[in-house]
Amino acid sequence: LNSSVTGQMRAAVIDAFGPPDSLHLANLPIPEPGSTEVLVQTHFAGVNPIDTKTRGGHGVPVPRFPAVLGWDLSGVVVRVGAGITRLREGDAVFGMLRFPEIAGAYAEYVLAPEEHIARKPEGVDHREAAAAPMVALTAWQALFENAHLKPDQLVLVHGASGGVGHVAVQLARWKGAQVIGTASVRNHEFVSQLGAQHVVDYATQPLDTAATNVDVVIDTRGGDDFLRLLQLLRPGGTIVSLVGRHTEGERAAHGKGIHPAFIMVRPDNAALAEIGRVLSEGALQITIERVFPLNDAGAAHSLLETGHVRGRLVLEI
Ligand SMILES: NC(=O)c1ccc[n+]([C@@H]2O[C@H](COP(=O)([O-])OP(=O)(O)OC[C@H]3O[C@@H](n4cnc5c(N)ncnc54)[C@H](OP(=O)(O)O)[C@@H]3O)[C@@H](O)[C@H]2O)c1
Fold this sequence. Notes:
Elements: E1 8-14, E2 24-29, E3 37-47, H1 49-56, E4 67-68, E5 72-80, E6 92-96, E7 109-113, E8 117-119, H2 126-131, H3 133-146, E9 154-158, H4 163-174, E10 178-183, H5 188-193, E11 198-201, E12 214-219, H6 224-230, E13 233-241, H7 247-255, E14 259-262, H8 269-281, E15 288-293, H9 297-304, E16 312-316
Parallel strand pairs: 9-10, 9-12, 10-11, 12-13, 13-14, 15-16
Antiparallel strand pairs: 1-2, 1-4, 3-5, 3-7, 3-16, 5-6, 6-8
The structure holds NADP nicotinamide-adenine-dinucleotide phosphate (NAP).
The site of NADP nicotinamide-adenine-dinucleotide phosphate has 30 residues, from helix 1, helix 3, helix 4 and strand 10.
């Protein structure tokens, strides 16, 4: 059917590290799938903070330019490699590809390793599916694989209105945990509606007084906040940081009998399929603050870099 997909495609690329307006459209050859890859025609691509960091030269390594950024996508399989058995042309799929290596989701066609994608969940549109993978896998791995969250435990999500935060609140509630979120006042109602029992204004309330006896903290900020968040945990509790190691904080955590984890999200299509079921059931919804066309990828990066996007941004390809 689609084995004739050849020729050129449009992609948003950078030719060097730089500001948001370094992103521009270019024509690139449509790639050929290897035996364990499929070629996906992208409908939407998610925009994550690691995209903006990488564009600026302080994210993941970029082996060559021009480079196509983006890890999250939703789309339709248009070609399959010789060794593919699970997927067929025409299947709608979503996933976070190859992270932390370059994947190239800001393009009309993208090569996806079969084990990094799952079927797009029933009843979830491409837009929401494209926004989900990185934030949902991060929250899933943090809450369930690192912190081993149990029903009725108390979780505090620092940065509860952001991409990862708003998913962490919902997944913790889905598991049956109690949730406290931190957010700016303008997002308090939003975070409550996600299921948080209590929302703390991080701008006016000292973070180290936000709660007591917390079982699990998800820290999306790091730095000095990590040290303050340690004060909230019970001995034996777990703090999961998304933003890199904190040597002093790690030592302080061990001194209090707290488990510190510094995680890096990884592709996992089994977890993604489970996340897909939670999305289908409606227990998890991804908020999309804005959709940008591919040729406005730079504007999406500028908005994300304000640090106050609610939920996620996506590019329409
Ligand atoms: N380790 C990993 O594998 C991994 C995976 C995913 C993400 N990350 C990293 O984790 C961080 C969060 O990712 P994300 O996608 O959730 O980012 P994001 O969507 O850009 O986060 C934006 C949110 O941060 C909140 N915020 C801003 N300043 C804050 C402050 N001082 N205190 C508390 N909250 C504040 C904002 O809330 P208000 O607007 O309400 O102020 C906003 O909703 C990023 O640095 C990202 O690169 C790491």
